[in-house]
Design a protein that fits this description.
10 strands, 49% strand, mainly beta, 4-stranded antiparallel beta sheet
Amino acid sequence: VQLQASGGGLVQTGDSLRLSCRASRAIFSTFAPEVMAWYRQTPGKQRELLASITGGGTPDYTDSVRGRFAISRDNSRKTVYLQTNNLKPEDTAVYYCNTISDRWPWGRGTQVTVSS
């Protein structure tokens, strides 16, 4: 399985981005049951869990993004999404997806940069 994240970019404070992450080379029966998650990392810091979603679509969020970000998934496309709203400079990071247990190799992520 390869995890291919996209959708990042340079935005201003208050803007929104929709991030996507496709599990290429995964088959439906491998992807669908997994609890998928979005993470982010900034230089010199540990990777931070942001949100997760069960195979059936039940989301969960950490306090840092609850109310601003929304996770969703399309099992038929083997893709998980992260809608990021009201972005702040402290949201600047590389964003990654993986299973909640880090089961698959990490991809390159997608860079989100929020200017003040």
